[in-house]
Amino acid sequence: QVQFVESGGGLVQPGGSLRLSCAASRRIFSIYAMGWYRQAPGKQRELVASITIGGATNYADSVKGRFSISRDNAKNTVYLQMNSLKPEDTAVYSCNAADAAVVAAYDYWGQGTQVTVSS
User: Fold this and answer.
1) Which of 11, 29, 91, 103 could lock 76 by a disulfide, CB 3.0 to 4.6 Å apart?
2) In sequence order, what DSSP letters do the residues of the chain get, joined into one string?
């Protein structure tokens, strides 16, 4: 069974910070690189950050230098520290495997967590 439980979203002013958490099924977390995705209203879901089991990270240009992804392999949890937030970061944030083929194979998404950046 695959499961993702995201938390930590909320309303924050521009320039503020949030830390998102995602508890994932060990079945996926222990095998695959993990990613944080976001989907804004009317836009496609995009991968904003990913991390391998070994800890190598990659970021979308739009968040580079502001967001930081990390994982706790003992807790099957992946985090996203978001600093210097901008209104354009407003979206529903979800975690999943970082590999699109794996995402398609399992075909499952959690509820996600809403992040709203507004004054």
Assistant:
1) 29
2) ---EEEE--EEE-TT--EEEEEEE-HHHHTTS-EEEEEE-TTS--EEEEEE-TT--EEE-TTTTTTEEEEEETTTTEEEEEE-S--GGG-EEEEEEESSHHHHHHH------EEEEE--
32-36, 91-95, 103-107: which range is least confident on average? 103-107
pLDDT, tens digit (0-9, with 9 covering 90-100), for 75-98: 999 999 999 999 999 999 999 999
- Torsion region of 27: left, alpha or beta (phi above 0 gives left; psi -120 to 50 gives alpha): alpha
Distance (Å, rounded) from C-alpha 56 to C-alpha 43?
A: 28
* pLDDT tens readout for residues 15-32: 999 999 999 999 999 999
Nearest-CA neighbor of 82 among 6, 34, 14?
14
CB 17 within 8 A of CB 81: yes
Give Cα 93 distance to the centre of its chain: 6
